[in-house]
Design brief:
This protein is α/β, with parallel strands linked by helices. It is built from 18 helices and 41 strands. Strands 5-4-6-7-8-10-12-14-16-17 form a ten-stranded mixed β-sheet, with no helix packed on it. Helix 14 links the parallel strand 32 and strand 33. Helix 10 crosses helix 15 and helix 13 packs parallel to helix 14. The termini are far apart.
Length: 819
């Protein structure tokens, strides 16, 4: 902030006392100055404004300070040297119309001025735009009602129109007048100034005077100007509020005004401006954004709580820097009338700034907000109340004061949850209900009960800090029910007798409760606490059971490790049973052209009902039998698989039901694989296996991002049945040791056999009709290995194979002929 008023008052002095002889590019006593925020190059600043204040010739001021001073003191050369060509006005009508006339050439290069005061000019001269060298116009005390078109004078520096009859100033009136430095619209009848009238991007006014008009509101864009200014004067209007008609948001990174002052003295403000409504989102940045001062002296301000947020922010500034326009005084309330707001702030008396509340305030009470303490006070002292009020203002952090009344009972009112301090001093309260005590404790309400004849203190208070229970002096009968008070008062603030001073009645005298001897008060079993504990435990168990029940399928599936293949001995007829909606042609095509060829290439035995179901068989019996004979189940999940609109879904439901039951009973050897073909979400399913599969991510996504859908299916299916023949012969099940030509079979003399070319054959076994395992030399081999199947069929051999009675590993290389 600069001392703008001092600078303005000295400007005239500087101009009158500085010599005006020009011996060079600048007059004596001046230097050429250009505002960094303005493109004008014809302004000159005094070199000596005041020896005690500044010395611009020696540059003993910082650059920003110099620009602030020169902005208010600099003048154009024609004003210093008084070299102006004066033109005059000639009336052309008694209705107030006229022309500008000049004795010289209007196209000359010399600056011109037009002065016509105390006339009856009603409109701008008709030919005024022809005088482009006009730099100063003074049409004071005329009858002008409209000045639209004045912006054709792009070189105009000073426009004085005070004492006319202007009523409205539009925001395009001065558009483009980048050289306009001084604007005087005082003493008119202006009722409205449109937003951005004096703050357009093409404007750079230093002095604006709109004082002594009829304005009732003022938009922020006409005083919070991004371009620097010296003074904007709205004194002696009827302004009641500052507005934000365009709901602009002020950029908190900008700085507005650069040291000027906005003069709002003697207007009709009663409330301090709410800058949050003016587009300032963060009040802590207000001082950085508004780099100019407000002068609101002479306004009849009500000093209430709305001022506090701003006064809190101004404490430091007021303490370090003083300006005359800081000395704003309160007009209301009466107890603060004519007191300086700055002094009250400096002295830390912001508690006196309150905002009265009338809505829901109990009769006879004084309700007010106190922002300095962030609380709402409901003061019902000495109002002859006999019970707690039924209603209080709907605020938070309420201090409820009910001192000096006849309240004998505390009821559990719903608003107690919003009360932070309850003062019931000097009433007639003897007992506090346990429910009320619980509410007070849960909501951490400070309680003041001085001067009440309490007979008992609720045990619920023993968990509260004694500092928050101001009970005063209390004499009561002490027994085992209040033995807890002895330890309670020994904590915290008990030594402060002004807060709580509890005594026990005794035959001789009253004894402080901390010194009282409680006899025969062994701690008894607390059945109430036990009941509460059991109830809580049961509640927790009920919750856990509900959770387990809700997620029962997920828990079951997580325990089964569905991504891992099952170990088996090839005891099932089919490796895979495929279940699919038969009405979905796309899925059927994919199964026949992609899935089945892949599974067959991996030697899996597959049952696919649309292909493998026998003609004339009973469908349901066929499904049940083949499901039981299958080790793995693949379900192609689509929207029509679960649809209730199609009668054919009954077969998929039967398949799913029996497959799920088989999987549950033998999940150690069976696996159930779901391929999510239609990318269905778990949310569309009720609680059940489908929902669990999708929620746990156990279903294989058909659009597998890794493009490994078939590989993942194979991984979950495990080894085919025929690969388990090695285990049935007692060989290792993971990698069969049979020769690579084991399944390359051919017929010799119409007898199926196995041709092998193993290089290290230890024994060759054959299966004979007498159900004994023999070597080729027809000798019996009594080594614990016997034929498990004696049908001379290769297919039977592949399906059922041999097994070891002892379970020991057979020789690594064997040669088996079937005949």
């Amino acid at each position: 902030m600069i001392r703008s008023i001092e600078i303005i008052s000295l400007t005239v002095f500087w101009i009158l006392t500085i010599p005006v002889m020009s011996n060079g590019s600048a007059p004596v006593g001046f230097f050429k100055w250009q505002d960094p925020e303005n493109n004008r190059t014809d302004l000159f600043c005094p070199t000596n404004c005041n020896h005690d204040f500044c010395d611009l010739s020696n540059m003993r001021v910082e650059k920003q300070r110099m620009n602030q001073i020169c902005r208010c003191a600099a003048v154009p050369l024609w004003e210093i040297e008084n070299e102006l060509e004066h033109v005059s006005l000639e009336y052309t009508s008694r209705l107030g119309r006229g022309w500008v006339v000049s004795s010289g050439d209007i196209r000359g290069a010399k600056s011109q001025s037009l002065t016509h005061k105390n006339g009856f000019l009603a409109s701008l001269p008709e030919n005024i735009c022809s005088f482009q060298h006009l730099v100063k116009i003074d049409l004071s005390e005329n009858e002008l009602t409209d000045i639209r078109g004045i912006n054709c004078l792009s070189n105009l520096d000073t426009l004085i129109l005070k004492g006319n009859k202007l009523k409205t100033i539009s925001n395009d009136t001065f558009q483009g007048m980048s050289n306009l430095r001084v604007l005087d619209l005082s003493l008119n009848e202006v009722k409205r100034i449109e937003p951005h009238t004096v703050s357009g991007s093409t404007l750079g006014m230093y002095f604006v005077d709109v004082s002594h008009n009829h304005l009732k509101s003022l938009d922020i864009t006409n005083f919070a100007i991004i371009n620097p200014f010296c003074e904007i004067n709205y004194n002696d209007n009827q302004i009641e509020e500052l507005t934000n008609e365009l709901t602009i948001k002020v950029d908190l990174k900008t700085s507005l005004g650069d040291g000027g002052i906005v003069n709002l003295q003697r207007n009709l403000f009663t409330k301090f401006p709410d800058f949050t409504k003016l587009g300032i989102s963060d009040l802590t940045q207000l001082g950085k954004v508004f780099s100019f001062g407000f002068d609101i002296r002479g306004c009849k301000l009500t000093c209430d709580g709305t001022m506090v947020p701003f006064l809190e922010l101004s404490k430091e500034v007021i303490a370090k820097v003083w300006r005359d326009y800081f000395d704003v005084k309160c007009f209301q309330p009466p107890e603060l009338a004519n007191q300086s707001i700055a002094w009250l702030t400096k002295e830390g008396q912001l508690d006196r700034f309150i905002t009265n509340i009338t809505k829901d305030c109990p009769t006879g009470c004084h309700c007010y907000q106190q922002p300095s303490r962030d609380r709402t006070v409901v003061n019902c002292t000495n109002t002859n109340m006999t019970q707690l009020p039924k209603k209080i203002p709907n605020d938070q952090n309420i201090t409820l004061i009910l001192k000096e009344n006849q309240v004998s009972e505390i009821k559990n009112m719903s608003y107690l949850e919003r009360v932070s301090h309850l003062d019931l001093s000097e009433n007639n309260i003897q007992n506090i209900p346990e429910s009320v005590a619980n509410t007070l404790v849960v909501n951490e309400v400070k309680l003041t009960l001085h001067g009440n004849p309490l007979q008992k203190i609720p045990p619920r208070f023993k968990t509260v800090d004694p500092c928050d229970m101001h009970l005063g002096r209390q004499n009561m009968t002490c027994d085992c029910s209040n033995a807890w008070m002895g330890d309670w008062v020994s904590r915290g603030c008990y030594n402060n007798s002004e807060l709580s001073d509890i005594h026990c009645n005794a035959p001789s005298s009253n004894i402080p409760v901390a010194e009282y001897q409680f006899e025969n008060c062994d701690e008894r079993f607390d059945y109430k606490s036990l009941s509460i504990g059991i109830a809580i435990l049961l509640l927790i168990l009920s919750g856990l059971l509900a959770i387990f029940y809700y997620f029962r399928y997920e828990i079951f599936l997580l325990r089964k490790r569905l991504r891992q293949a099952r170990k088996h001995r090839g005891q099932f007829k089919h490796d895979v049973y495929i279940s699919v909606s038969e009405n979905n042609g796309q899925i059927l095509s994919w199964i026949q052209n992609i899935l089945l060829p892949f599974l067959n290439s991996k030697s899996y035995s597959v049952f696919f009902r649309p292909i493998d179901e026998g003609i004339g068989s009973v469908k349901e019996e066929s499904i049940i039998d083949n499901v039981k004979d299958s080790r793995n189940f693949i379900v192609i999940l689509s929207s029509d698989y679960i649809s209730d609109d199609d009668d054919d879904t009954i077969w998929t439901q039967i398949e799913w039901k029996h497959a799920w039951n088989c999987f549950k009973e033998e999940s150690n050897v069976r696996n159930k694989i779901i391929i999510n073909y239609d990318h269905l979400r778990s949310s569309i399913f009720p609680i059940g296996p489908f929902k669990a599969y999708l929620r746990l991510g156990l279903a294989i996504d058909f659009s597998n991002r890794k493009h490994k859908l078939l590989e993942e299916v194979e991984e979950r299916l495990g080894l085919p049945n025929k690969h388990c023949l090695t285990k049935q012969l007692g060989l290792m099940s993971s990698k069969p040791k049979f020769c690579s030509t084991f399944y390359n079979q051919h017929i010799i003399h119409d007898v199926p056999g196995i041709n092998t070319k193993c290089s290290k054959v230890k024994h060759t076994y054959v299966v004979s009709d007498d159900h004994k395992l023999r070597t080729k030399d027809n000798s019996e081999e009594d080594n614990g290995i016997s034929g498990g199947v004696y049908l001379q069929s290769e297919n039977t051999f592949e399906r059922l194979g041999f097994y070891s009675k002892t379970g020991h590993r057979a020789p690594e290389l064997v040669h088996i002929d079937i005949f």
